[in-house]
Amino acid sequence: PWMPTRGVHRMGPATPAKVYGRVFSLCLILVLIVGARVSAQEPALTRLTVQAAQDKVLFSTTVENAFTENMEEAVKSGITATFSFIVTLESERSLWLDETIAEKEETHTMTYDPLKGQYAVTRSWESDTPFLTASFEEARDRMCKIEGMRLTRTKKLEKGATYIISAMAELGTMNLPPYLYYILFFVSRWDAETDWQTVSFTY
Known about the structure:
The chain has 3 helices and 10 strands. With about 200 residues, it is of the alpha+beta class. About 20% of the residues lie in helices and about 40% in strands. It has helices at about 15-40, 70-75, 135-145, and strands spanning about 45-55, 55-65, 80-90, 100-115, 120-125, 130-135, 145-155, 160-175, 190-195, 195-200. Strands 3, 4, 5, 6, 8, 9 and 10 form a 7-stranded antiparallel β-sheet that branches. Strands 1-2-7 form a 3-stranded antiparallel β-sheet.
């Protein structure tokens, strides 16, 4: 006698319509993923400025598009945000390779204390004492800016000579608790770096 078979599902051959439908769905998913990445503005260094104050060469810059709403929540959840800045000062030479006058790598860190409701931002080039604030906006602005960082002394420069400052930033995290790894799906921008930017000046 014929006995019914349970749990067995037989699929017929894929028709052209089914194949085209699957290909279309896959293409749509890829378009949505790529579109989401393109629409998100990438971090970038802007407002590179240099000035000679007293006997020092001072440099300033800002990281734009470094934070999103998800990143703010990640910091509140216990992630330590770190921005590393690499800055070089070189003399411009027409016939020879540019001479490096100074090179610096400085780090900004941001943490959040939920008990005190405070953000702490430390900038290695400035002071070991952290800047404390209850405002995320203030902490974010301080995290994203270098304001008057000393590169070198003016005595190392020659009058009338042209110099080039190059800078970039690496965005990352540290001290990530294991149970917060899922958040990195939303803060993958922090595993990124900006393009190099330059500014030249004549002393």
